[in-house]
Each structure stands twice: as structure tokens, then as C-alpha cells.
Design a protein that fits this description.
Length: 605
């Protein structure tokens, strides 16, 4: 199968990717399409599909600010905070893995309708939750909807998009995701001024886009590729004609149909799709690349930043909760704006270069973030008073604010005169509102200079600006590349028969790693310190750079039916365009890059 499109270029080099079947190649055939010829209906499809990304992003962003209010109102400890965050991503992991079966059986459209319905139910439960147990149930239900949408939406958009705009339109889903995070942070800021129950509005407003998507998809068509796979060829032809506005439909329809028929012929007796993927070299390598990208997206710390952005800013020395929430909104705005940069760049520089550049900047930004926390730790004010502790807790044993802050059961009480901290003590959290020892009362309000200040989850520092800069730079570099490309690449690299299962597996890996990061961040910070955690993430980014450099091929501008041939090497493969853009030259990565000989090229799987 991998050699069915094998061509020989004019310079004698072999190319395993030729023009799509059914028409001859012309220079720039795949890349130089006129965007003005794209029917408006494609953008309508992309908009309603990408509302799934908006829901994903809204939930990711809203929990950051809501958690600061929930922590206080429901008296949540670290474990419950991590549970409320990670329960959603855990449920999303399970539903994403099952989404492959659901997509293959019911189709993309039904799965998106199901996801938006589930999300609506979860949002209603969250808005009326009387206690943290019901809140947890609502978060789990929301996660089930997000998981299905996260693996279905990119596939649907990729399958209905023309090749020359596929990268941009799939990346629009990530743009909506980051837009959802930004809107969520603004909602967090607006409702943070409510004295009680503001988090209900923050979490409950997610119902609005979910209902909008559900209503929209009642009137939108199924993917023509899925319809052809199910033998509904006449309906597929009608849908393709509708979404292409009658432009070049015959050639595209013939190409897709030929690809589906060939896959059915090669499938033989069928069997479990995942076993076919693992036993077939090109799809197995595509699965490794897809899952690796999704794994490193999470292990580079993105959802630590998004779920806990307000908390991280507080850790970095921002005293006021409302100020921390609004600064988190500024970081979300950065994420959104630079995702638009990714939409602009993806069809200009390609997926591979964009991902490599993104990882390089992300690693440097994480290092800056770690340095900011390191400087804050080194200048952390000492504990000068050790009052008698009636609870006999460990708080009285800590000698600095940094050590006190790392213990979630302790808080730092101090007085200050200008920039000078004095009469400081580390006390149990539940003792912070009582008269304690001989030096007064800890309060949430800062009155005149020298009044007692209650510092829970932060230490006074002059290095907060470095941490804020690190967060902003991190998102500026992460958003256009590693934020968007894992979803874009995964929607492209699998053949039709493996697309649902392959995307389900890679999305499942994304959510599992998301759970791992979100469930361990606060505890990891407690044991490794905050700067240690971010140095650790920057080390993982180095591994991601090596992986992407060695294994990610370029898919820009290729029809979906031709991309599988990029993975016909013995290990990983990298694709690059010839100057005229009409062919893709195959380069195999095995120690050193080299072009395969004639015999080797004919032996690929």
C-alpha cells in the first residue's frame, strides 16, 4: 500500500508521494489554491465544529479562577483541588478512547451532537451543585463530553476541508480553544467580585456554547469520507458537492472513493482496528508520532499553566486574589492571540518547523519561569517568631516563608514597613483568624503600614514580574506550535480506516498525560519546590525537541489520501517539499538522513 503512489522525480530522486490519484501533478498543485474560491459553507462547518474546542478551552480556563473561590468557600485541601481538576481530564481520557469506536460506528456528526448534549447536562449540574461531591460528579460528566469532542472535531474538520486550507481550518479549532480559555478568564474576573457563589456562574455559563453547537449540528452534514466508508456513496457525493460548492467535486470524489475501495480490499477479513494499526508499519509509525506529540504537549506543562495560572501567579507573590485572576486573564489573552499567529503560519512555514520553533521557545520560557521562582526562594523572608502552637503542627518548624508556603496546611503571617518584613510567623491555616501568640491577628485585609498580613499561598517578593513574564512568553511560544500542531497533525496522518481509532488513541494519551500533570502539580511543587517543577518541565521539552526533530514529517498541502506514504520508512520519516511544490521527497531517519536507494524504496511496507 505504501508504494502505490511511488514516483520518480526529474532529478532522479525517488518520491513516495506523488499527485493524488485521478489527476496529473502540476507545480504547486496542492499549495497554490485561491482561498477566495473556498465556499462559505466550509467556514460555517468549521465554526460550529470548533465550538467543541471552545468548550474544551472554557473548561480549562474557568477552573483556574473558580478554584480560588471554591477553595475558600468549600474549604478544599490540595487533594480535593486536584480531584476537581483531574476528574474532568480523567473522564475525558476514557471517553476519548471510546470515541474511536463511537466515531466509526455512528459517525462524526452524531458524536459531536452527543458531546454537546453531555456537556450541557454537566454544566447545569455544576451551576447548582450544593457540595463538593456533586461538584465532582458534574466535573466528571463535563469531562465525558470534552473527551468525545476533543478527538472528533479535528477529524471532522480535516475530512471536510480542502487540502490547501486543512491546516488552517483544523488550527481554528485550537484558536477557539484558546479563545474559550480567554473568555473563561474574563468571566472569572467578572464574577470574582461576588461575595458568594460566583463560581456557579463561572462553571454554569459553559451551557451556552454547548447548546449552540447542538442546535447548529442538527442542520449540518456528515463527513463525506465516513459516508463513503459506510457505502452511502450517493449521499457522500451530495454532501461533497454541497461543501465544495460544485468546485472540483468529481476528481476529489473519485480519489476518496478509490482510496476507500483499496483500503477495504486490503483489510481482508477485518479484525480489530487497533491490531491492524499495530501490525501495519506506516500506521504504526503514524500512531507513535501522533501519541508522542500529544504526550509531549501535556508533559511540557501547558495545563499546569492553564489550570493553575491564577495559583501560580499567587505563588509568585501576587497578593490579591482578584488581581491574580485578572493577570491570569492577561496570560489567556496571550495564548489566544498567538494561536492566531499559528493559524497564519501553519500553511506558510509548515507543521514541522512551527512545532520545532515552538518547543525551543517553550523550553527557554519554562527556564525563565523556574529562575523567577528560584530568585524568589533565595530572597524569601525568614520566620522570626515561633509562637507556641496548640495543635503542635509542623508549621512552627519552618524557618522561611518559602518552606512555610510549600506546606498547604500552613500560612505566613507578617508585618511590613515599606519593603521590610518583620515579626513574621508560620501558623496553621485554621489558626489564621484567631488571636495568635502575642503579636496580633492575621487578616485578609492590608490596612496601615505595619498591620498584620495573612499570606496564604504566596511570599512577599520583588520577582513577581519575572514569573509573569515567563508565563506570557511561555504561552506566546507554546500556542502557535505545540498548542495547535498535535491536534492538526493527528487529524491528517492516519488513513481513513484508522483515522477514528488513531485519533482516539492519541487523544486518550493527551488526556491521560493531562491527568498525570494536573493531579500531581501541587504535590510535585510541595516536594520539588516551584522552581524545581518548572526546571523539570523544561527538561521534558528538550526530549520533545529530539522526538519532533527525528520523527515528525511535513504534511503541508498534501491530500489526506497521500499522507500515509510519509510513514513508509523503517523508523520515522521526514518529508520536505521540492522547490516547485509538486512532489514530496521521502527522507528516512535512521541515524543519518539519506535518500533510499531504488531497491530500498521498492521494499518499503
Amino acid at each position: 500500500m505504501g508504494s502505490r503512489n511511488q514516483k520518480v522525480t526529474d532529478d532522479g530522486q525517488q518520491s513516495l508521494i506523488g499527485p493524488p490519484s485521478g489527476h496529473s501533478a502540476t507545480p504547486g498543485d496542492h499549495l497554490d489554491k485561491d482561498d477566495s474560491s473556498t465556499p462559505t459553507f466550509i467556514y460555517i462547518l468549521a465554526f460550529f465544529s470548533a465550538l467543541g474546542g471552545f468548550l474544551f478551552g472554557y473548561d480549562t480556563g474557568v477552573v483556574s479562577g473558580a478554584m480560588l473561590l471554591l477553595k475558600k468557600e468549600m474549604n478544599l485541601n490540595n487533594l480535593w483541588q486536584e480531584l476537581l481538576v483531574s476528574s474532568t481530564v480523567g473522564a475525558a481520557a476514557l471517553s476519548a478512547l471510546s470515541g474511536g469506536f463511537l466515531n466509526g460506528w455512528f459517525g462524526r456528526r452524531i458524536c459531536i451532537l452527543l458531546a454537546s448534549f453531555i456537556f450541557s447536562v454537566g454544566g447545569i449540574i455544576l451551576s447548582v451543585a450544593p457540595n463538593k461531591v456533586v461538584l465532582l460528579v458534574g466535573r466528571i460528566i463535563v469531562g465525558l463530553g470534552i473527551g468525545i469532542a476533543s478527538m472528533t472535531v479535528p477529524v471532522y474538520i480535516a475530512e471536510v476541508s480542502p487540502p490547501h486550507q486543512r491546516g488552517q481550518l483544523v488550527t481554528v479549532n485550537t484558536l477557539f480553544l484558546t479563545g474559550g480559555q480567554f473568555i473563561a478568564s474574563v468571566v472569572d474576573g467578572a464574577f470574582s467580585y461576588m461575595s458568594h457563589g460566583g463560581w456557579r456562574y463561572m462553571l454554569g455559563l459553559s451551557v451556552v456554547p454547548a447548546v449552540l453547537q447542538f442546535v447548529g449540528f442538527l442542520f449540518l452534514p456528515e463527513s463525506p469520507r465516513w459516508l463513503l466508508q459506510k457505502g452511502r456513496s450517493q449521499e457522500a457525493r451530495q454532501v461533497l458537492d454541497r461543501i465544495r460548492g460544485g468546485q472540483g467535486v468529481e476528481k476529489e470524489y473519485a480519489t476518496i472513493k478509490a482510496s476507500v475501495e483499496e483500503e477495504e480490499k486490503e483489510a481482508g477479513g477485518g479484525g480489530l482496528v487497533i491490531l491492524r494499526i499495530l501490525s501495519h508499519g506506516p500506521t504504526r509509525r503514524a500512531l507513535i508520532v501522533g501519541c508522542g506529540l500529544q504526550m509531549f504537549q501535556q508533559l511540557s506543562g501547558i495545563n499546569t499553566v492553564m489550570y493553575y495560572s491564577a495559583t501560580i501567579l499567587q505563588m509568585g507573590g501576587v497578593r490579591d486574589v482578584k488581581q491574580a485572576i485578572w493577570l491570569a486573564a492577561a496570560t489567556s489573552a496571550t495564548n489566544f492571540m498567538f494561536t492566531m499567529v499559528g493559524v497564519w503560519l501553519v500553511e506558510r512555514v509548515g507543521r514541522r518547523k512551527l512545532t520545532l520553533g515552538s518547543l525551543l521557545g517553550t523550553g527557554l520560557s519554562l527556564t525563565l519561569l523556574a529562575v523567577g521562582f528560584l530568585l524568589s526562594a533565595q530572597s524569601s523572608p525568614p520566620v522570626t517568631l515561633h509562637p507556641v502552637d496548640p495543635q503542635n503542627s509542623t508549621c512552627r518548624l519552618y524557618g522561611s516563608c518559602e518552606l512555610c508556603m510549600l506546606d498547604p496546611d500552613c500560612g505566613y503571617c507578617y508585618r511590613e514597613n515599606g519593603t521590610t518584613v518583620f515579626n513574621s510567623s508560620c501558623v496553621p491555616v485554621n489558626e489564621a483568624s484567631e488571636d495568635h501568640a502575642a503579636w496580633g491577628r492575621c487578616s485578609n485585609q492590608t490596612e496601615e503600614a505595619g498591620s498584620p498580613i495573612w499570606a496564604y499561598n504566596y511570599c512577599p517578593t520583588s520577582y513577581s514580574w519575572i514569573i509573569l513574564m515567563g508565563l506570557i512568553l511561555y504561552l506566546a511560544f507554546f500556542a502557535p506550535g505545540m498548542g495547535a500542531m498535535p491536534w492538526t497533525v493527528n487529524s491528517e496522518i492516519f488513513p481513513l480506516w484508522a483515522r477514528s481509532t488513531g485519533n482516539a488513541c492519541s487523544a486518550g494519551v493527551n488526556w491521560i498525560c493531562n491527568v498525570l500533570v494536573s493531579l500531581t502539580f501541587l504535590h510535585a511543587a510541595e516536594f520539588l519546590t516551584y522552581y524545581g517543577v518548572f526546571f523539570f518541565y523544561s527538561g521534558l521539552v528538550v526530549l520533545a525537541l529530539v522526538f519532533v526533530y527525528g520523527c515528525l514529517p511535513e504534511t503541508k498541502g498534501l491530500p489526506l489520501e497521500d499522507i500515509e506514504n510519509l510513514f513508509t520508512g523503517r523508523l520515522c520519516s521526514c518529508g520536505s517539499y521540492s522547490p516547485n511544490g509538486s512532489h514530496v521527497h521521502y527522507v528516512r531517519v535512521k541515524g543519518n538522513n539519506y535518500l533510499p536507494s531504488d531497491n530500498e524504496a521498492s521494499d518499503v511496507e
